[in-house]
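Table 4 source record.
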Amino acid sequence: MTNNKFKPAALKFGNALVQDSDYMHAWSALEYTHMAQTIDPRCMLLIGHSGDGKTSILTRYQASCAVKKRHELSPQHVVLVTATSKLSVHNFASRILRALGDPAPNTGTFASKEERLQCYKQKLGLELVIIDEFHDLLPKGYYDMRSGIVKFIKWLMVELKVSVIMSGLPLSEEILSIDEQIETRCNDIVEFTRFSMCNKEQTQRYASFIKSLMSEFPTSIKGLFSSDGSGLLRLLLATHGNKRRLKDLLIYAIQATPESDSTTQAILHDAWTHTVSRMIRNETKALPFSSTLKQVKTSLVDLGLYA
């Protein structure tokens, strides 16, 4: 590819949103947890592996709740903060303050930060705190209900009186096993799962997603929806059922497809080698877009993605 800018069609496709069953379930759970704040704050868990679409839905939900800023202290009902490894609870409180527009979020004692959060709660109408990459806040090794993050999550709900969304890898669910107050306040656990074709239900879910996604794809891909399912199987093998890899591969393919031409298997293979990591490619015994269908199926079975 010689262009140093994305084609308009690639940009449009990159911003396309497919509201599959996982997405709709998660959105409803986000709305309910947010709404619960008006009666008694609750929390929910959104779990899944990297690339499953968690951050995308969180940013879209926050954007849907945004209030147009008219002055420095305009209402801010929802804040989204991202955790990182080795981040202390003290510093995490600073991140929430920064998201709320505090001019000096890193200053003061932890107690003073809690007081400022109380103040912003009143001034800005804070209702919901969304924590992305929540697993990075969990201490490595042993921790219990006395751990700082556990006490802080409870403080957000009980004292600050805001609902909390915790989103991260599946290990994030461990927080429910160590504190009964958090566990009883958790109104839902939504899990984003990778695509597979191990049974009829999973195959239908995956096919439906691809069909919706391809309605935004600007070219045709020969054989994608063939009766033997070869096109779907090849895409599944190329991306291991991961939404992010799938979208990256197809964006690259749009960029590499000449105007008015169809996207070929050769283009898809080139996109696969450029957008999927060597580690993942090495785990794939067959070449997704050039091996026989039998070899593709065998490789998918080995990966646990086909039965």
